[in-house]
Each structure stands twice: as structure tokens, then as C-alpha cells.
């Protein structure tokens, strides 16, 4: 089953040294999961100040700077895994460095197997 692990935390919670250590630990974890054929992707996100939000209301597009919600914790990155069950996803989530200072939300992915073919032009 595929799971998206969403990493939330306060952007100012990490020192530069902690952030560097976090990236090294995360990279080792990604390599380990890849060797076990569990890893599909992962990436940190740029700071929330670089975000752009798009909403469409009554057919009109509204584009604004910043995230959708005002919260103390922001989405900072993700992992995409293919594991046997939720317990395995929880085990990996607990090893993500961001879980030490924030939250890792685990969401199962709905696989869209029977999408209609798109006509090629």
C-alpha cells in the first residue's frame, strides 16, 4: 500500500546545524528504504514564504502569496512509501528526523488504476 508521510513543524525550530544533520539522517533513511524497495520519493519544501495558493470560486481564480491556513506548524516536506501495512509506515514515520520537533501525518494514497485514456493530438 502506498502512503504519503507529510512532515509538519515550525520553520524556526531548527538551527542550521540541526537542519544539516536532519538532511543527512533523512538521506540515510531514504537510501535504506530504497534498498528495501519501499521508497518512492521524498523532498523538503522551500519555506512557507515562497508558497502560492490558488482558489477558484464561482469560476474566478484567486492567487495569493503564502499558505492556505495560518498555523504555527507548516508543511515542510514529504515522503512517499510503498509498504505492506500502516504499522510499517508508522515505523518509518517515527524515524523521520522531523518527527522529533514536529508531526508526521500518514495518509494512504488512493490508487487510480482505471483512468480514461487521453487522446493524443
Describe the overall structure:
- By secondary structure, this protein is of the alpha+beta class.
- The protein has a single domain (2-108), classed as Alpha-Beta Plaits.
- It contains two helices and six strands; from the N terminus they run βαββββαβ.
- The chain has helices at 16-35, 86-93; strands spanning 2-9, 39-44, 52-57, 60-65, 74-82, 103-108.
- Strands 2-5-1-6 form a four-stranded antiparallel β-sheet, with helices on one face. The protein has a two-stranded antiparallel ribbon with strand order 3-4.
- Strand 3 (52-57) and strand 4 form a beta hairpin.
- The longest helix is centred in the first third of the chain and has 20 residues, at 16-35.
- It is globular, with a radius of gyration of 17 Å.
- The termini are far apart.
- The model has no long low-confidence stretch (mean pLDDT 91).
- Pfam families: YCII.
- Belongs to the YciI family.
- This is YCII-related domain protein.
- InterPro entries: Dimeric_a/b-barrel, YCII.
- Residues 1-112 form the YCII-related domain.
Amino acid at each position: 500500500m502506498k502512503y504519503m508521510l507529510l512532515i509538519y513543524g515550525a520553520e524556526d525550530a531548527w538551527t542550521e546545524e540541526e537542519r544539516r544533520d536532519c538532511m543527512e539522517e533523512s538521506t540515510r533513511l531514504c537510501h535504506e528504504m530504497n534498498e528495501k524497495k519501499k521508497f518512492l520519493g521524498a523532498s523538503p519544501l522551500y519555506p512557507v514564504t515562497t508558497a502560492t495558493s490558488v482558489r477558484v470560486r464561482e469560476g474566478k481564480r484567486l492567487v495569493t502569496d503564502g499558505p492556505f491556513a495560518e498555523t504555527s506548524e507548516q508543511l515542510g516536506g514529504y515522503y512517499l512509501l510503498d509498504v505492506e501495512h500502516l504499522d510499517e509506515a508508522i515505523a518509518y514515520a517515527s524515524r523521520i528526523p522531523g518527527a522529533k520537533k514536529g508531526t508526521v501525518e500518514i495518509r494512504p494514497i488512493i490508487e487510480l488504476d482505471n483512468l480514461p485514456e487521453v487522446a493524443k493530438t
